[in-house]
Amino acid sequence: MTTTPAITFTPATEARLDVARQVADAVLFEGYVLYPYRASAAKNRLRWQFGVLVPPAWTASADEPDFQHTELLMEPRRGAVLAVEVRFLHAQRRTVQRALPGGGFETVPELRVDDRVLPAWDEGHEERVRLAVPVAELAGEGVDVPFTRPAAEETEPVTDAAGRVVGRLVRRREEIAGSVRLSASELDGPYVTRRLSVVVENTSDWLPAERADRDAALTRSLIATHTLLCLDSGGFLSLTDPPEWAGGAVAACRNLHTWPVLAGEPGSRDLVLSSPIILEDHPAIAPESPGALYDATEIDEILALRTAALTDEEKREARGTDDRAAAVIELADSMPAEVLERLHGAVRGLREVTTPGPTALRPAGADGVPVFTEPTGSTAHSPAAGGGFGPDGPLRPDTPWWDPAADASVDPSNDHVLVDGHPVRAGSRVVLRPRLRHSDAQDLFLDGRRALVEAVLHDVDGGVHIAVTLDDDPGADIRREQGRYLYFQPDEIALADAREDV
Asked: Is 301 helix (H, G, I), strand (E, B) or coil?
């Protein structure tokens, strides 16, 4: 049923959505512009990788969807209202033009001014589709809300230090259209539980030319698309950690091209972020992070140092590439030493462990393997171990965790672990068998690959981690020299040839 729901949220709902928007912003601009933040950098020539909903006519030409389908369970109270906010980027093409001496302008690849080099570039214009619907109206066919974002053209003059117009930027956006479909059905059982379905679809009627490429389709796409949901009364059920009674119903939920998680403070259930990237429930930006750096494959400390080390010419191009890139350059150049220092050595979590002596708190993930707990990969995730914390503050470890030579009980180059009754140590040949409960999505691509064991590592909590390099990795020698290994647990490997390790 096509309808026009309310688009005004109550102040309370706005406040709750604000809690989730910081993480949602990180999703929206995931990979938007990557270090070294210049349009000419190879990494910034293939962009818009997450949450891209292309026009329907383009799906036949590329393996990219034109819709997202979110499905999850909710427990609304009587009279509850569901607030929905779909957010995405609308690509706008920026053309650079130089002012001619006799008047008029001509298009050029770039324009050099005093403090910037302005290249042609595709910018992301943030768009939102907002609606508020009583849950009772979602029964049956539910609601179907179409939306359109019209074509637009804007110009911005470019002046030099003396205030003279030396060129202009011309920004063009193509028309895009879409729809948001909502429906809910009640589940059988003693609890008032409904299965909520949210479909966000690109319905643009653009027909690509015979030789149209992905860049042409992107200007008519919904990019980095994600959805925020908020119940003003009631709550949602976690899809990753549901109550036992809801396990079967949760397993039956269909989520295509999206990953819904509970958002907001730990323990809250009124917010959901349906994201195009995999997150855990209640994701959060690291409090040490000084600002958005957009390159979530890196760590804030490394990025800040690398950015500050760019040459003046490289910074000029980054400033002209995008306003957000310019902000990163300014952030790195003006970051106080105490802010940079707090990016180093952050402990991501503490958990209680039982010891023969007094109970101590030790950092989780103290095995030296990075543990990322926020979507931006912000701040350094350094290992910390040893004595942990006591009632009077940090306890000094008997053995420094940063000096393996000080602890004769560990020897990564010679230690071994038994796999199927056979010892595995540095030099063993293995086959990788990643498992969902240990691995992230990237590890699963390595299933069945052969690898060489470089070391067997033990953490302070008794865990064992096997460091490997891939046999067919052309950069294995560099990884080995730098100590940048892949890490797997013993039940995630099989011996390539048991006779090699007997």
From this structure: helix
Domain 417-501 in CATH 2.40.50? The answer is no
Q: Which of 375, 379, 295 is nearest to 22 (CA)?
A: 375
∠ Cα 115 120 126 (to 5°): 95
Q: How far apart are CA 479 and CA 400, in angstroms?
A: 26
pTM: 0.71
Query: Are 382 and 346 in contact, with CB atoms under 8 Å apart?
Result: yes
d(CA 196, CA 182): 7
Domain ranges of the chain: 11-275, 417-501
| pLDDT of 235 above 50 | yes
Euclidean distance between CA atoms 158 and 118, whole angstroms: 9
CA distances to 86, 90, 230, 323, 365 from 129, rounded to whole Å, are 5, 12, 14, 24, 39
Mean pLDDT to the nearest integer, 471-496 = 88
Q: Which run of H or of E encompasses 469?
A: strand 464-470
Instruction: Kindly state the DSSP code that residue 77 receives in the 8-state scheme.
Output: P
Element (H, E) at 476: helix 476-482
Question: Which residue is listed with tokens 């949450």?
Answer: 51
Among 190, 272, 355, 361, which Cα is nearest to 16's?
272
